[in-house]
Write a structure and sequence with these properties.
Blueprint lengths: L15 H32 L3 H7 L1 H13 L9 H25 L7 H23 L7 H41 L5 H14 L5 H7 L4 H37 L14
Helix pairs in contact: 1-5, 1-6, 1-9, 3-5, 4-5, 4-9, 6-7, 6-9
C-alpha cells in the first residue's frame, strides 16, 4: 500500500537507457561465465590438464582482462564509453575466433593463450565502462537501488551463461554422435541404433581415455566409437564458441543504443 517501503523502485525500469545498459551488462557477464566454464572443461577433457595447469593457461584471459580493465578509462579519453563497449565486443569476437582456429589446428594447450588474451582484452574493455555508464542514466537518489539491480543482474547473467553453455555443449555433443554413428561405414546397420542410444544416454563431456574404459565393444568398433566421440566433442566446443560469438555480436548491436555519456572512473568486474 501507499507509504510502505519497496524493495526496488519499478520506475527504474521505465528509464530506457538504464534498461539498455542492463541488457548489455547481462550478456557480458553471461559470456564471461560461459568462457570460464567451457574453456577449462575443454582443456581438461582434451589434454588431461590438472586444475593447476588449467589455471595457468587461463592466466592469458586474466592478463587481457587486467590490461584493458585497468587502463581503458585512463587512455583514449577522446572516445565515448559506449564506443569502448562496442569495441570490446568486437575484440572479444576476434578472441573467440582465435580460440576456434586453435581448436581446429592446435595440438598443444598453450596455443589457446593468444585467443584467451584477446578475448580477455575485449571483456575487460567492456567491464571498465559499462557499470558506470549504467549508473550515469539514473539520478543520485536512485543510485543505490540501481546498483543493487545491476549486481543482481550480474549474478543472474553468470548463472544463465553457465547453464546455456552447458546445455549447448551436451546437445551439440549428443547430436553430433547420433549423426556420425548413422553415417559411419564401420558399424553394422543392425547395431547402429543401439550404439547411438548407448552413447547418447550415457554421454558426458569426458576425456577419450575415460570413455575408452567404459566402452564394451572391442577392436574396430571401439576405435570407431572413440573417433566419433573425439570429433563430436571438438565440434561441440566449437559450436558453443560460435554461439558465444553470435551473442557478443548481438550485444554489440545493443551497445550502439547505449547513452552518450562520459565517465572517468574505473569499475571493477
Amino acid at each position: 500500500s501507499q507509504g510502505e517501503a519497496v524493495l526496488v523502485d519499478l520506475k527504474l525500469f521505465s528509464i530506457s537507457d538504464f534498461v539498455k545498459g542492463l541488457n548489455v551488462r547481462f550478456i557480458q557477464t553471461a559470456l564471461m561465465a560461459g568462457t570460464t566454464f567451457a574453456v577449462p572443461l575443454f582443456l581438461q577433457v582434451t589434454y588431461g590438464l590438472s586444475a593447476f595447469e588449467t589455471g595457468f593457461i587461463l592466466l592469458g584471459l586474466t592478463g587481457g582482462l587486467m590490461l584493458t580493465d585497468l587502463t581503458a578509462t585512463r587512455i583514449g579519453l577522446q572516445y565515448l564509453p559506449k564506443q569502448k563497449v562496442m569495441w570490446g565486443f568486437l575484440v572479444s569476437i576476434v578472441g573467440i575466433f582465435l580460440m576456434i582456429g586453435f581448436m581446429l589446428v592446435g595440438d598443444a594447450p598453450g596455443g589457446l593463450v593468444p585467443g584467451l588474451f584477446v578475448y580477455g582484452m575485449g571483456i575487460g574493455l567492456i567491464a571498465s565502462q559499462i557499470v558506470n555508464l549504467i549508473m550515469s542514466t539514473v539520478t543520485a537518489k536512485q543510485t543505490p537501488e540501481a546498483s543493487g539491480v545491476t549486481s543482481t543482474l550480474e549474478t543472474l547473467g553468470s548463472s544463465v551463461g553457465t547453464a546455456i553453455v552447458g546445455t549447448i555443449l551436451v546437445v551439440a555433443l549428443t547430436g553430433g554422435i547420433d549423426q556420425m554413428v548413422a553415417q559411419s561405414t564401420v558399424f553394422a546397420p543392425e547395431v547402429k541404433q543401439q550404439i547411438s542410444e548407448d552413447m547418447a544416454t550415457s554421454v558426458e563431456v569426458v576425456s577419450t581415455e575415460v570413455l575408452s574404459e567404459t566402452i564394451q565393444e572391442d577392436g574396430v568398433y571401439e576405435e570407431e566409437a572413440l573417433l566419433i566421440y573425439d570429433t563430436a566433442r571438438q565440434n561441440a566446443f566449437i559450436i558453443t564458441l560460435l554461439f558465444m560469438a553470435f551473442s557478443a555480436l548481438i550485444a554489440y548491436m545493443l551497445a550502439r543504443d547505449l547513452p552518450v555519456a562520459q565517465v572517468s572512473t574505473v569499475e571493477e568486474m
